[in-house]
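Lab notebook, bench 4. We co-purified these components, and the gel suggests they stay together. Before we commit to crystallization screens, I want a quick structural picture of the whole thing.
Request: model the full complex, all chains together.
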Amino acid sequence: MRAGERWSWTPYLLSLPGIALCAVFLLVPLAMTALLSLNSFSFYGGIADVWKLDNYADILADSYFHEIFLRTFRIAALVTLFCAALGAPQAYILRRMTAPWRSLCLLIVLGPLLISVVSRTLGWALLLGSTGLLNQGLLALGLIATPIEFMYTETGVVIALIHVLVPFMVLSVWASLQRLDPQVENAAMSLGAGPTTVLRRIVFPQIVPGILSGSIIVFALAASAFATPAIIGGRRLKVAATLAYDEFLNTLNWPLGATVAILLLLANIVIIVGCNRLVERRYKQVFE
Amino acid sequence: MPYLVLDQLTKRFTGWTAVDALSLTVEQGELISLLGPSGCGKTTTLQMIAGFLDPNAGRITLNGQDLLAKKPNERGLGIVFQSYALFPHMTAAENVAFGLEMRNVTRADRDRMVADALKLVGLDSYGDRYPRRMSGGQQQRVALARALVIKPNLLLLDEPLSNLDAKMREEMQIELRRIQRSVGTTMILVTHDQSEAMALSDRVVVLNKGRIQQVATPQEAYDRPANAFVANFLGRTNLLPGLVEQTAQGVSIAVADARWPVLQSVPPGPGALAVRPEKISFVAEAGLSGIVQARVFQGTQWLFEVETAAGRMMVIRQHDGGVLPNERERVMVGWRPEDMAVMPAQEAA
Amino acid sequence: MPYLVLDQLTKRFTGWTAVDALSLTVEQGELISLLGPSGCGKTTTLQMIAGFLDPNAGRITLNGQDLLAKKPNERGLGIVFQSYALFPHMTAAENVAFGLEMRNVTRADRDRMVADALKLVGLDSYGDRYPRRMSGGQQQRVALARALVIKPNLLLLDEPLSNLDAKMREEMQIELRRIQRSVGTTMILVTHDQSEAMALSDRVVVLNKGRIQQVATPQEAYDRPANAFVANFLGRTNLLPGLVEQTAQGVSIAVADARWPVLQSVPPGPGALAVRPEKISFVAEAGLSGIVQARVFQGTQWLFEVETAAGRMMVIRQHDGGVLPNERERVMVGWRPEDMAVMPAQEAA
Amino acid sequence: MNRNGPLALIFNALFLGFLLAPILVVCAVAFTPDGYLSLPTKGVSLRWFKAIGDNPEFVRAFKDSLLLGVASSTLAIIVAVPAALAIARHKFPGREAVQALFLSPLMVPHIVLGIAFLRFFTQIGLGGTFVGLVLSHVVIILPFALRLILAASTGMDRSIENAAASLGASAWTSFRRVTLPLILPGVASGWVLAFINSFDEVTMTVFIASPETTTLPVRLFLYIQDNIDPLVAAVSALLIFMTVAAMLVLDRVYGLERLLVGRGRD
Amino acid sequence: QDKTIYVAAYGGSFEQTMRKEVIPAFEKATGVKVEYVAGNSTDNLAKLQAQKGNQQIDVVILDDGPMYQAVALGFCADLAKAPVYDQLYDLATMPSGKAVNFGAVGTGIVYNKTYFEENKLTPPSSWKDIEDPAFKKKLVIPPINNSYGLHALVMMARLNGGGEKAIDPGFKEFKDKINPNVLAYEPSPGKMTELFQSNQAVVAVWGSGRAKALADTGFPAAFVYPKEGGVVLGSAACQIPGSKNAAEAQAFIQHMLAVEAQTSLAVSAGFGPVNKTVELPADKQVGIPYGPEQIGKLLVVDWATINANREVWNKRWTREIER
Ligand SMILES: Nc1ncnc2c1ncn2[C@@H]1O[C@H](COP(=O)(O)OP(=O)(O)OP(=O)(O)O)[C@@H](O)[C@H]1O
Ligand SMILES: Nc1ncnc2c1ncn2[C@@H]1O[C@H](COP(=O)(O)OP(=O)(O)OP(=O)(O)O)[C@@H](O)[C@H]1O
Ligand SMILES: [Mg+2]
Ligand SMILES: [Mg+2]
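Here is the predicted assembly.
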């Protein structure tokens, strides 16, 4: 905002199309879901139009659900952390590449996104399974005696999710790196800052908006991811999305599923908006 | 032993040679100015010394050590960028403190030094401000303070004072000179302000199209330019056609209706004479007569444009209260024979 | 009718008044310079005229019309930004062509005008280059060409020549002057180069801390500054303490061992006199004696620092080949009574 | 010039390797002559690529997906750009709420959205229509477009836009000629992400796609109902090849560098 | 063709068979156009629930388990009387009279023949064999919200002195003996195939039809009915109430029960015919429950009891077994 700027309609007009679209095609379905979460369900009776908070009470009281939500956010946090730790440097390296290589590498980063989650995780299964290429390789090299369990473990889920989501981080950081003035990095170097210091003190603070954007996307996607945890994690490693999926499709207990979804959404919003605000305050300067 | 040696330094951008086999030796504690028209390769040269651009050919040694082998952050020099290159996410004070932090200066010392440096550039009360909220000149001064505070052995200054007013510029010049004297800092200064270069430098290096034209003390370069480019670039010059003749009293040159004895040895025939505007004065007789076309006030001096039979001439006179001609007035201008350079006509073309 | 009127213009940033009730009237075709120390609000003023900053108070009218009611793109003025603000994604030629496109100039005309403008700033062969690949001065010239090519009625120039060498700067000055004369463009120029301001401007506006100090012709402001700030800001001044005495021959002031008649009416008692360095000359007798501490070459002139009994003084003498004292030489300096200003001691403090 | 050091290049290689590994595996599997997934393959055969041709519904679904992806990501960009500019440039009351709103589709499991959209569309008569499909996709891919454009436009130098205005450019022209090109890398990557996510979406689309508008992922999903075979890998491999080809064409026609990096930058 | 009916049914090879053989014949015979809405049982059931009161679908095809639920939730209309219903085996009829099983597969054990030969293991012959420690982390069972998994649970209960009405022994057996062997509780057939193909799994509780499809790809998969008996898994069809084309929908269901369609489904999709009059050539009988003798041997589970307890079981399952 320009200092001394008067209150204006401009931002509202600018975001109007988006707000209108979301209001009709997002808020209405979400409101329907929220209402649904108040209903009750029985196997033979189906969904009953009662308005009670029973489902919420059930979930909040049940340690089974606690465990699942905890796991969900643990995985999401880990994935976000790794994506930031890998994706941001990668974006930086990309920027420092010369012309033809840069576009090429950028495309490779985008590559994984282009094939469906199903076949990507298929690839992972082939790689990570107990008889997969990785384990075979490690066994052949004599590095391990018994296959490492990746499939159906949290580690496997995290690895696969990183693979699926890290391009979002790279792209997002990439977009914000475009604004950096290379001379500013030079200035830091001339003052005696080594490459890591330049990264940490000069580049990083300036690309925080990009990392934040990337982290938000990654965290939200990881927390609500369905396909990857379902395929790599299996049923025993349930996360919130698979739980909702089960309730919706297998038991047809939509009210409970809707409750899970609403709780997931609320928790996500609280975490994300909270972090967003924290980061924006901490790095106020670059957000102006 | 020479301190900094640039040896056949060359930088080519795609299809463009920005710096062309530039060789230069700088002594420790010297202040050297790089002068030259816009785009002649001054910034490029500094960037190579600082290590931000890799030369295509040539070597740089500092204190006998190969500088090109070192990474930019290990070269230990200070640089003020033409575009300032301030850290946008740090306050003025944080900007200045950065180099000290890199040198592990303790907190207390650092704060003190930062405060001193900001005070030096007249920004004592601006420490908390972010660059975005500062005026152009204020930003430039932060950049200067940032480079000065680390007290580097070699300081590269790329038009460090271009956005400061005369008063401030003068103060900064004095400060630079003081630091250079007291700390013994070697400085390479790029400036477009000739009086600044003249006033500050031990030697000036005149560049054109990436090539060195002359390396000399300011006065030498000014009074005895190595070639027409330097003569023209440093200060203004009046070039008048004349006829060199061998007379009884010796060689002389006839310009329109006036005549001057020639002190150099020039073959008779069509010739030209060059004389700087500030060496010309308004005389009562034995001069070239003309009419003042324009008089322009320039503060400490006046600039006159005088139309004479030999062509239009520029004359500079000090604004010292003496009587000076008005526009449209008929005047006579003259100069001392030793202040002019005479050459055969074809050389001057 | 005045062309541009700034009326009580005020701009406050959070906790900082950058421009304070500034009122100014500019005539059509006038060239006005804004002068003032770094951070005094020059850029802020221009930005308000251009419409990029909303003033907190005050009005601007152009040609009788309220300018604040118009959007920036409807104000039809040209501006050269202190930071150039070139479009990084367009070549030099595209940058220059942009404004013409906005005015729906036909392709052919546009190409011609762009070529002309680039030629004018000496960048004929750089049309295809992106700003990032240009030197600082080249970028600045693109910015200048971009603003000139649209031939605006009002041109705002924020230190447009700060990164150009003297030669180029002079050419550009002449060019600006020519455009102003031939097209009748009204120009507001911000510059830190006083001789530039003096040479170009019809009037200068001296600002300090967001407030106008004086509006006058250059020579008037220089020779008859409205206050101590202006006197000090425009050019240098020597301030010497003395004693004003009523003698038989009239009022005079005694400075160390010398004495000058006082032409103004000043009460007797402790006083001070101000005299500009270029008004001082080396005299044979009846002057203040001292020793030359430093002599600095500045191209067309020499700057001397002379230590006298009354204090350290600066003296400027033209580099016209005359004999000038050396460092450490004992000299005597003097000036004409009409070139000094005498005031009571407390006023000078 | 700041080049990457050896460590950086090693990191880059490992990173790209990590990203490519499963894809290469999938591509390798696509060439198997066997009727089932096996690695290493016993030979090289194009039988599964030929099999794609035998399934015309794949080709049709591919076209539908492409159309859906292009339509919805383009719409999403059109909506996201002004919103991103508003959020990046202005501090207005409700800014955070708007941000949260635009982001929320990311945080709801798609199965929930799928059911909700199905119920909603059925009620307003958009059920099974292409319009409904596009709109629902726009909603779920909007966050990608928005966040990337936001990252590109926060902290952009305003004086450049001011310069455009001073030269007479209207708000719209200045946006089109100056702002947009400057944030183009963000917009382009935002579009690509949006497209990819729309192109890939299955969990939600299963519910709102009709027999006439079935997307490729849904087709694949249904295809592997009772059997997974190398055809899936072949389809993926083919997609990758086509993408590479499209990129090459794009590079020739417009210049990838220009699109992803921006003009006049190094 | 002015009339169109929407049929929601499985994807995959079933869809192929329907589109290539069963539907064209119906369209030709009646002039009614059929739109095929592909999706698995759970998806389609969910679609029915979502579009409740505004149904776009005329006929739905689901596994028998979900079909019981669909009937319970009122998504099925009464079946019209027709001669073809008299030609069916008993297991085809569903108690409510609102849906009919048009095909049957058996739940049994699938294993990787090559793996067993290489490791000199004896092929499984009893439900108990899946508890063999040799299969540690090599066994896959669908979860109990999938019919195959449910069958396995019920069988384990029955073998340990319980049954549908006393499910505890089943849970206990799973928890103590089977769980260590289980690599994954995997409902998705595609995923299951992949686990076999990548050699991560070598034994599974699965259906005869799936096993046949896997073997048809050339993979060395073998299927056995355990000696205690396989369990029948029906595929059922019903008409959605409120359909504008109820008559055509009923006709379509009858068409699927007729000899011609039954043969196609058996040969191409591996569904055991429920029509007694269907005759398959010997080479096409492999892997399909066919004929009174085989069909008679298959065990039937008590859906009424199961459905009454399903919610509780599910809850227990996710908390005790799948944790
Ligand atoms: N966005 C801002 N927020 C707060 N203060 C500001 C902002 N922009 C400028 N200022 C302050 O307002 C004052 C006037 O700034 P302005 O840019 O007008 O100075 P200037 O006269 O152009 O100086 P210079 O010659 O150095 O360019 C300065 O002291 C500056 O620090
Ligand atoms: N990245 C680049 N690619 C191509 N040419 C370049 C690049 N950078 C600079 N140049 C060219 O090299 C020449 C030297 O540039 P340099 O910046 O050294 O000039 P300079 O002497 O500093 O000029 P100024 O006084 O205008 O700043 C210029 O003509 C410029 O156009
Ligand atoms: Mg430069
Ligand atoms: Mg300014």
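Confidence is low (pLDDT under 50) at residues 1-5 of chain A. Worth comparing against the SEC data before the next meeting. Chain A touches chain C at residues 2-6 (CB under 8 Å).
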